[in-house]
Amino acid sequence: MDEILHFSELGVVFLMFIIGLELNPAKLWQLRRSIFGVGAAQVIGSAVILGGLLMLAQFSWQAAVVGGIGLAMSSTAMALQLMRDKGMNRNETGQLGFSVLLFQDLAVIPALALVPLLAGSGDEHFDWMKIGMKVLAFGGMLVGGRYLLRPVFRFIAASGVREVFTAATLLLVLGSALFMDALGLSMALGTFIAGVLLAESEYRHELEIAIDPFKGLLLGLFFISVGMALNLGVLYTHILAVLLGVAVLIAVKMLVLYVLARVYGLRHPERAQLAGVLSQGGEFAFVLFSTASSQRLFQHDQMALLLVTVTLSMMTTPLLMKLIDKRLSRRLNAPEDEHEAPWVDDDKPQVIVVGFGRFGQVIGRLLMANKMRVTVLERDISAVNLMRKYGYKVYYGDATQVELLRSAGAEAAESIVITCNEPEDTMKLVQICQQHFPHLHILARARGRVEAHELLQAGVTQFTRETFSSALELGAKR
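Structure (tokenized):
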């Protein structure tokens, strides 16, 4: 069971990589107050209250400290997935929730280091030479990632083989996770940092669609393993204690989060959403409580009760969120422009330009000069590299893949301009947009009469025949 749970945590690792891709260092710096302010207050506040309640339940003070910290953590996998499903990840509520989860990941290491100290066996665990080596290795990872990742992916993308690109992405995610694990740090934190380092690269959207299938599969395994962790024997023999524990855990965490969200300035519906989505215990509790049990901080029945409580709290979260959404649906859907996160607009383009050759560049410059939010997709890596040198935000990828368009913001965009060189690609893109993104206003380039006729038959009326139009313009000058 422990092996399955450990393997399934890779789903969280992949999810954190994708989250990292959505944040660049500048955006992460904007979150510093919510990470170290609200995040720290949530962990400390919840841990103090829950630890005090555990002492009232006849836990030793050492066990109560560890138990309070473990129960204060939320499930990164469950909370992030719920926030993405409900669209919370693109508003201020999701921004604050993510900040809290990120601080919890940062708190994992000191929490684990605290266990042997509380057990009275910590003196020999503080080898300052090892700690210094870990800090140097972590710094080396940051510097190496900053200067090596983009050239490596540029070389791989130049091969034009998508499978190699996917394999390299998997190697990056798993390698950074295992490297951090070897240092005794959070695997999810390592892949998150790798994602942040690539967030401003031209490969961002292509990386996301390469990882997404693996993330979904492993997250599914994670949730299955959570169900497998439920000890029905303990639940049957201590059902009242377990149900009371689940209710108290959820109530305490919701209260702390609600108060902090109010101080932060969120409205009542947003506070309730944030409190609900982070109300459960987390996967880190399994690791921390197992470590504490091996140090004899917990009695066997105490650990069993805590693990069942955490598992049931995770299972109740989707139901709790449905109840919150149902009760507050009108107020949650009310206009709230002033509550939007300051960095959201970068991921919500008004126009997507596919193809950035000479024709696409003219259109792109015109749109950008008129202050429109534009996302450009180009599958020629040499063209991407050249345009990026001139300051254009061009992303590498094949736009005929639905997931790449979705990742690039097609669901939020108003228009798409298709300037592909190949007529087959143009028609394929038209069909994809009409099927998956029917709201998009399609504008296209036709290289000749046949392609123009095909566009008309497909229902595209906004197009230009480049040779015909330029010939008429030149002829009109006589």
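DSSP finds 22 helices and six strands in the chain. Residues 348-477 form a domain with the Rossmann fold fold (CATH 3.40.50.720).
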